[in-house]
């Protein structure tokens, strides 16, 4: 498996990367290369040029800004999983990153690459939607912010415009009394999520004050299970209410994907089971963090 021929450019700064993308409209950005290079080898993508952003140091790392985390697009999955500040302020993100692929994939793959690639089987997109993250894109028209909830448009399709780079992600840290959990049914060969569920629950006075539940891997983009969220909000934080809420997950899944690995019906079933377990774990964790 060999890719078609291409030119290779290594950008040292964001400005240089933007200029290169402008000069080569057919070019693709290269970050960790763990999705793009396999696609090129399979000839699913044949860009005329690659703009390698891996050397732009400003784009990597996690910083705490007020109550939020600003995560550079080049931050690897391994760095997220191991980061003290991520584990402390937003543990569900570290939990999800630690479940990506294997160590080699986590050492090379980046959060920016994962979000820009928008693979329905990826783990971070649904976690970003659940967390209410905001993505920053930089391009010919300057810098703009996009909520994670509107960033993913279709299979492998995002709101990024031609010439734009995803430069960072702002993730709100948890408030007091909040617990989160990410669970997936992993594909046995690749570890990608056949289905994943990200839950965030704020418990106050023994009741679920705020609930966010997002399912990935079932449809083209991450899906918020709004009926389930509403069913749990305001209810006692317990096993029975979580069970009843999770039963409403299929209401959000009107276009489930079926393929060689799992039928559409099985994916919806998995989503319901994983959502129940993720909600239950998030509730337990929230109870352990009194507000
Ligand atoms: P690249 O492959 O370099 O790029 C991917 C796409 O995004 C390209 O189109 C590229 O042009 C674009 N891009 C990259 N960075 C930017 C940017 N900053 N701005 C704009 N566009 C950009 N993922 C999971 O979520 N869960 C898994 O379990 C999992 N298992 C895997 C197992 C294997 C064996 C492999 C090879 C991959 C696996 N992945 C998994 C995918 C992995 O996480 C990838 O690293 C990730 O999806 C893409 O990140 P990257 O940095 O490698 O991006």
Question: How would you characterize this protein structure?
Answer:
This protein is α+β, with helices and mostly antiparallel strands and 291 residues long. The protein has a 5-stranded antiparallel sheet. The protein has a 4-stranded antiparallel sheet with strand order 11-12-13-14, sandwiched between helices. It has 3 domains: 43 residues, Uridine Diphospho-n-acetylenolpyruvylglucosamine Reductase, domain 2; 113 residues, Uridine Diphospho-n-acetylenolpyruvylglucosamine Reductase, domain 3, CATH 3.30.465; 108 residues, 2-Layer Sandwich (Enolase-like, domain 1). It contains 12 helices and 14 strands. The termini are far apart. It is 34% helix and 27% strand. Helix 10 runs antiparallel to helix 11 and helix 11 packs antiparallel against helix 12. The structure holds flavin-adenine dinucleotide.
Write the layout of secondary structure elements.
Layout: E1 7-10, H1 14-23, E2 28-30, H2 36-41, E3 49-52, E4 62-65, E5 68-72, H3 77-82, H4 84-89, H5 91-97, H6 103-108, H7 111-117, H8 124-131, E6 134-139, E7 142-147, H9 148-151, E8 152-154, E9 157-158, E10 165-172, E11 178-186, E12 193-204, E13 207-216, E14 223-224, H10 226-232, H11 239-246, H12 264-287
Parallel strand pairs: 1-3, 2-3
Antiparallel strand pairs: 4-5, 5-10, 6-7, 6-10, 8-9, 11-12, 12-13, 13-14
Helix pairs in contact: 10-11, 11-12
């Amino acid at each position: 498996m060999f890719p078609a021929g291409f030119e290779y450019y290594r950008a040292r700064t964001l400005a240089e990367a933007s200029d290169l993308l402008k000069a080569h409209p057919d070019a693709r950005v290269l970050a960790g290369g763990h999705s793009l290079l396999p696609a090129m080898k399979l000839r699913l993508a044949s860009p005329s040029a690659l703009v390698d952003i891996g050397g732009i140091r400003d784009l990597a790392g996690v910083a705490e800004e007020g109550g939020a985390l600003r995560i550079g697009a080049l931050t690897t999955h391994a760095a997220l999983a191991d980061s003290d500040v991520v584990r402390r302020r937003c543990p569900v993100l570290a939990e999800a990153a630690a479940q990506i692929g294997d160590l080699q994939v986590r050492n090379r793959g980046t959060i920016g690459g994962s979000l820009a690639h928008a693979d329905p089987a990826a783990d971070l997109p649904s976690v970003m939607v659940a967390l209410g993250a905001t993505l920053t894109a930089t391009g010919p028209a300057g810098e703009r912010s996009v909520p994670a909830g509107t960033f993913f448009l279709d299979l492998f399709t995002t709101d990024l415009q031609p010439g734009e780079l995803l430069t960072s992600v702002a993730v709100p840290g948890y408030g007091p009394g909040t617990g989160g959990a990410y669970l997936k049914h992993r594909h046995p060969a690749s570890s990608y999520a056949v289905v994943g569920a990200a839950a965030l629950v704020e418990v106050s006075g023994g009741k679920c004050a705020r609930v966010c539940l997002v399912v990935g891997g079932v449809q083209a983009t991450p899906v918020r299970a709004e009926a389930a969220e509403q069913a749990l909000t305001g209810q006692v934080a317990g096993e029975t209410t979580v069970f009843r809420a999770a039963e409403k997950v299929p209401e959000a899944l009107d276009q489930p994907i079926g393929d060689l690995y799992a039928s559409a019906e099985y994916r919806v079933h998995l989503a319901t089971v994983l959502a129940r377990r993720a909600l239950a774990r998030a509730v337990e964790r929230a109870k352990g963090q009194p507000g």
